Amino acid sequence: MKIRSLAVGTLTACLAATVVSPVLADSPKHNGETILIGHRGAAGVAPENTISAIETGSRSGAGFVEIDIQLSADGVPFIFHDDTPARTSNVAEVFPNRENDPITSFTWDELQRLDVGSYFSEQFVGEKIPHFDDVADALTGETGVFIEIKSPAKSPRGRTGCGRLS
Predict the structure, then answer these.
(1) Is there a contact between 77 and 166 (Cβ–Cβ < 8 Å)?
(2) By C-alpha distance, which of 18, 27, 59, 17 is closest to 42?
(3) Whole-model pTM?
(4) Cα 132–76–102 angle (5° rounding)?
(5) What is the mean pLDDT of each run of 10 residues along the chain (166 residues)?
(6) Per DSSP, which regions of the chain are E strands?
């Protein structure tokens, strides 16, 4: 898998800090240089944690993009920040009365029925929740990835561990 080879050396499994987009970080590995990290891709200019945001963050010259990963009810790794789909999707229209259900209670097929771009602007109508495997293709150049594993205990395999993200 592309993302696995990309991950070596550029992937942080759990990022515990809340950061503001974009973030500047000082790292000894970068000889004291300030590096730019696109939060949730480039959440200030595209819908957060979408392919559009990841591509924009990568093209902006950011050294890294930060994304959030969760597992669907049927075990598919997907990119999404919140515990519920209410804030950034049209879940109330597609699945009435499920807007406050845990995002991890939806199957991958159900998640693909949601629009996660319209809340941001008309330019992103129809944007879908990305699969984890789609991240590598959205990156350009030498952009690395920081990954925050969201609420692993709430994932389908969470009661017995994080499960496999494959």
Answers:
(1) yes
(2) 59
(3) 0.74
(4) 105
(5) 36 30 46 79 90 91 91 96 96 96 97 97 96 93 88 61 46
(6) 11-12, 23-26, 34-39, 64-71, 77-79, 144-149
